Amino acid sequence: MKECEVSLLGKVISDKKVNFYGIRNAMTLAWGNPRELQIKEITWNFFQFIFKDKTGLDKVKLGTPWLYDRYLLNIHPWKPGLESDSPIFNESNMWVQVWNIPLHWISKDVGRKIGHALGGILDILIPENGSKEGQYMGLKVKINITKPLLREKWIKLGSKTIWVELRYENLPYVCYYCGVLGHNDKTCIHREQDVRSGNLRSDQFGT
Questions:
Q1: Model's pTM, two decimal places?
Q2: Which ranges of the chain would DSSP assign to H, the alpha helix?
Q3: CA separation for the pair 56, 22 (Å, rounded)
Q4: Which domains can be identified in the chain, with CATH numbers?
Q5: Residue whose C-alpha is closest to residue 93's, from 117, 69, 72
Q6: Residue 166: its H or E element
Q7: Rg, Å, the chain Cα set
Q8: Residues 15-24, mean pLDDT to the nearest whole number
C-alpha cells in the first residue's frame, strides 16, 4: 500500500496493444531516468508507475500530457479501486493554442473563461512576442477524450461573440474521420457505420 501512494496509473489510449518493454524504456528516458522507478503492467495498455518518492511523481504529473509512440499516455495518481475503465481516464490534460483572439482580449481572465468552456483550465501561457503567424494564447485544459476534439469554438467576450481556432500541441494519434483519440480512420467504427449507410463524409480533421 505504501508504494502505491507514490505511484501513477497510466492508460495508453490506443486500440492496439503496446509493448511493455517499449513503454518501460521510452517513459524511463522521457522522465529523466527517475531513481528506482518501477513499472508494472496491470492489464491491456494499463500500467502502474511506482516512484521512489513524491518529488519524482510530482515532476511527471506536472509535465502532462505524455505520449508513447504518439499515443496518449493518460496518467492519474493511484487511488484504491481505480481501474482502466474508471471514468477518470476519460479525461486528460492537453495544451491548446487559441488563435483569432483580438489583441485587447488576450488576458488570463479571458484564458480562464475559454478554458472552462473547453472543460477546465489548469494553466495559462501568454507568449510575450507571439509567433510569425501572430499572437495566440496557450491553455492547459482538461478535456473529455472520448469526444471529438474541437477545432474551433464560438466564445462570448463582452458584447461580442467571436470565433476562435484551436490548435493542439504534441497532438497524439487522432482519427481524421471522427476526431477521437486512440485509433485511425481505417479502424474507425463511425466511419464503418457511415460506409454501410452510404453517408460517408470527407475527413474532418485534416490528413
A1: 0.86
A2: 20-30, 54-62, 108-118, 189-197
A3: 21
A4: 2-79 (3.30.70.330), 90-168 (3.30.70), 175-206 (no CATH)
A5: 72
A6: strand 160-168
A7: 19
A8: 95
